Amino acid sequence: MSQVATSYLQTLEKSLYDLVSETSTNLPTDVRRAIKKAKEAENAGTRAAMSLDTIANNIVMAEDNVSPICQDTGLPTFKVKTPVGVNQLEIKAVIKNAIVQATKDAKLRPNAVDSLSGSNSGDNLGDGLPVIKFEQWEKDYIEVKLILKGGGCENKNIQYSLPCELEGLGRAGRDLDGIRKCILHSVWQAQGQGCSAGFIGVGIGGDRSSGYDLAKEQLFRHVDDVNPNEDLAKLEEYIVEKSNTFGVGTMGFGGEATLLGCKIGVMHRLPASFFVSVAYNCWAYRRMAIDINAQTGEIMNWHYTEGERISFRDEEKAENTSDNKVVELKAPITEEQIRELKVGDVVKISGRMYTGRDAIHHHLMSHDAPVDLNGQIIYHCGPVMAKDEEGNWTVKAAGPTTSIREEPYQGDIMKKFGIRAVMGKGGMGPKTLAALKEHGGVYLNAIGGAAQYYADCIKSVDGVDLMEFGIPEAMWHLTVQDFTAVVTMDSHGNSLHADVEKSSLEKLSQYAERVF
Ligand SMILES: O=C(O)C[C@H](O)C(=O)O
Ligand code: SF4
């Protein structure tokens, strides 16, 4: 290969690496402004305001540490536009190199799991991954867009086939008003599980796959742009306004800010099909784009940099003016200590906790635990880890994962091993609530996406078990200090999540009448 070609590819690889690193660690300008607006909307002293404070703090830490904003660095999806004549195969190869390097440098969590064997490839490459879509265009430079959309919010995507019946809203027909109902419902059903306050991209029409593609394409629009289609512009505005009356709030804690942006696209459909596809994105809305010189491989321009940039550095901290109790917890915890905790209490954990998520919960149903879990705390978390020069593990990012996936196992596992507290985000269901009451346990809600904030509370990694499940799924033994979370389900049958779901359904039902 000639020197010119080599240096083009090397420069291109560096440019793509920078895109990946920047997307994972530095939240775009338009998203920062939306989060700032949410902060201003919340009342001081509420759980939602405190969570947004932590989120803002986390954004600063991620930028300063050049470390992932959230530990789930998503499924890297690239959209590339090239001038006629540019070699797309080379770009694909270079993207893969950049992804592998970014994973080694802990800018990305190894997130590519073999769907049949469950084994993690370790480098974010795998069948069909990363997702790369090419298009040609008439311009003379290359444009690369990247979105890192995590699994928790991806799980809250939803596709409606009209006509349909919707909880709280009744019949949704094949017209603009039916579309309106589907979109409102999509926001409501996400509750706090996709790390609200979120953003949605909506695709009207197409088939099942092109409809979702269209929805995801909307996530590349700027938060503050205006839809050129007047009807859709009105609908976008309406959805944001009404969704923010649901009272779901940040993390589903209740509050004013539930949805920070809604972007709707439309395409033709088949006569028999009428899909409304909704792609839900968490507050950690990581998407970025660059223009690249097609001769040199250098970055010419970064997108999403327009307008005022909020640094979140000099923000005033919201005072805890609520009458929530702050309780210090240290494992092993007794049943009496747990029974004293009530929904709304804030806990500060110091000492030992163990991570355990999907693979561990499945494993523990039919195996012994590798450590004594009696009185212990299980943290639903799949961290980003790195080895330092001495070969010791260090935590690079460690926020909670969505707990509801463990609902089939959690109660049984708590009882089997004597676990007293489980911590994650988004809450759990009736089976776990009943087990907490019977056995004497609590559910603690940490702030989703605050991966830098929590990594900072982890003082040491003291061991790891079941590493065969891969880094995110292994059981890490952690020593923490002042690790803060909120009791959202207690041992007396109370669940903040059940309450918020019920009250927000009442709010949703107010919008059953025709509007469009
Ligand atoms: O996989 C994770 O760490 C988190 C996930 O994105 C989630 O929201 O549950
Ligand atoms: S943990 Fe929350 S912020 Fe992170 S990817 Fe999942 S939904 Fe997004």
From TrEMBL:
Residues 297-499 form the Fe-S hydro-lyase tartrate dehydratase beta-type catalytic domain. Gene3D superfamilies: Fe-S hydro-lyase, tartrate dehydratase beta-type, catalytic domain. Its EC number is 4.2.1.2. It catalyses: (S)-malate = fumarate + H2O. InterPro entries: Fe-S_hydro-lyase_TtdA-typ_cat (IPR004646), Fe-S_hydro-lyase_TtdB-typ_cat (IPR004647), Fe-S_hydroAse_TtdB_cat_sf (IPR036660), Fe_dep_fumarate_hydratase (IPR011167). One of its GO terms (molecular function) is fumarate hydratase activity. Homodimer. Belongs to the class-I fumarase family. Catalyzes the reversible hydration of fumarate to (S)-malate. This is Fumarate hydratase class I. It comes from Lysinibacillus antri.
